[in-house]
Structures are given as C-alpha cells and as structure tokens.
TrEMBL record:
This is NAD(P)-dependent dehydrogenase, short-chain alcohol dehydrogenase family. It comes from the Bacteria. PANTHER family: OXIDOREDUCTASE, SHORT-CHAIN DEHYDROGENASE/REDUCTASE FAMILY (AFU_ORTHOLOGUE AFUA_5G02870), SHORT-CHAIN DEHYDROGENASE_REDUCTASE FAMILY PROTEIN. Pfam families: adh_short_C2. The keyword Zinc-finger does not apply. Keywords: Oxidoreductase. Transmembrane segments: none annotated. One of its GO terms (molecular function) is oxidoreductase activity. InterPro entries: NAD(P)-bd_dom_sf (IPR036291), SDR_fam (IPR002347). The keyword Oxidoreductase applies. SUPFAM superfamilies: NAD(P)-binding Rossmann-fold domains.
C-alpha cells in the first residue's frame, strides 16, 4: 500500500485531496491545525469508505516541532508495516488580507512561516522518510498571476510566488531520487480560507463567477482531484509544473 501525507486536511482542498487520494487505494496520514474535529472527520470519512487514515496535529508555523512530527510519522509507518511514505501534499496554509501600507512585520513574518518556511522545512525534515520515486505537490495560488490582482494580498501572493520557485528547485534537486514535484494554483475556491470569507460574504461569489470562464467559483473537489492525479502514476512524466486549477479565472 502506498502512503501519502497531506497537510491541512481538516477542511477544504486538503480534506478533498486526502479523501480522493485514499479512494485510489493509498493510506493517508493527514494533519490538522486548530480544527482537530475536522481532521478527525476527514479520517473517519476515509475509513468509512474502506481506506486507512490517521489524523495528526501539526503547527506549520512552528518549524521547531517538525522533528517530533517526523518521529510520530515514523511510528505510524511502522504500524502500517512500512518505513517510508510515497507522497507529500504541502497544502496547509493561512490567508490574511492587508494593504502594503498597513502590513506589520508580525503579519509578514507569520505568513512567511506558514506559507513558505513551513513547506520548505517540513519537506526537508520528512525527506529521509520519503521513498524514491515518490511525488510532492505544493498548493500555491492564482494570486501570483500577472493580471487581475486584488489589493491586499501582496504578502500572501509573494509567499506563494516563492513556493512556485521552490517547487522547481525541489523538482531539480529531488530528481536524482526519482521524486516528482509539482504545484497547483487554485483560483477562487469555496473554502474556509480568509476566515471563511465566502460564508461570511456570499455577495462575493457572483462577481467572481462572472470572471471565471467556466461560470462558477471552484469547489474543493475540483482541486483535490487534480492533486490526487498529480501524486498518482498517471502523472509519472510530469514534474516542475505549476498547474492552474481555476476554471479559467480572468481568462
């Protein structure tokens, strides 16, 4: 049995990716941050469908906790008669909106820790446990686009842009072990990101749908399916790519 680690799987895209990956016969070690119940619910959904899953807490903004997390992962792998895992989905993240002139160093540093430093050092920490020939997917954002920018997302987008570059360097360096690395860039997607913005401001949905070629905002399953495809053998010849999953947002 193949095994995947999916971070930020208590809701939204991460939850959908974890469930879709599990449906393909892969065991899933998923993580949650503040939403412990969501993580447990994701694991329960996978197990109800006949899959195997374990939900673990992880604070992506605290890189000092990563070695202990790696040790916990190693224990789960032993329970599953494995000493390596096959796929890593760096999905966990957070979003905070502020104009450049209003952005504090605290906000900048917090987003850096979660969106760029976190995936970098988590991947580095887990790499010794990863099997050769595996796959990594990083969740980026269409906010890095060169057109249709929304004021207030400068730090978030800058970190995601850094993640896009990091994806290519990971693909280059890890290729010696046959590990593929890609990223996905969702467009506007109905998730809890930004303080559950779509639920709090449903009036945002129609204007975003009008700017989308396929006529609606994205759903987590739209992106989760692509992530599952990228970590599967169906994408065995795809690496160093950033794939926009947006339904043609701003097309």
């Amino acid at each position: 049995m193949k095994i995947a680690i999916v971070t930020g799987a208590s809701s939204g895209i991460g939850q959908s990716a974890a469930v879709e990956i599990a449906r393909r016969g892969t065991g899933v070690i998923l993580t949650y941050g503040k939403n412990a119940q969501g993580g447990l619910d994701t694991a329960a959904t996978i197990e109800k469908d006949g899959g195997q899953a374990v939900a673990l807490p992880l604070d992506l903004g605290d890189s000092g906790s990563f070695p202990a997390f790696r040790d916990t992962v190693a224990g789960v792998l032993r329970d599953w008669q494995r000493d390596t895992f096959d796929c890593l989905v760096n999905n966990a993240g957070s979003s905070e909106m502020s104009l450049i002139e209003d952005t504090t160093e605290e906000t900048f540093d917090r987003l850096t820790r979660v969106l760029l430093k976190g995936p970098f050092f988590l991947t580095r920490t887990l790499l010794p446990l990863m099997a050769d020939g595996g796959a990594i997917v990083n969740t980026s954002s269409s906010a890095t686009a060169t057109a249709g920018l929304v004021p207030g997302y400068s730090v978030y987008a800058a970190m995601k842009g850094g993640l896009d570059v990091l994806t290519r360097y990971m693909a280059k360096e890890f290729s010696t072990r046959g590990i593929r690395v890609n990223s996905v860039s969702p467009g506007p997607t109905r998730t809890r990101l930004g303080g559950d913005a779509f639920s709090r401001h449903p009036e945002l949905i129609a204007p975003l749908a009008e700017r989308t070629a396929l006529g609606r905002v994205g759903e987590p399953d739209d992106v989760g399916a692509m992530i599952a495809a990228l970590v599967s053998d169906d994408s065995r010849w795809v690496t160093a790519q950033n794939i926009e999953v947006s339904g043609g947002f701003n097309l």
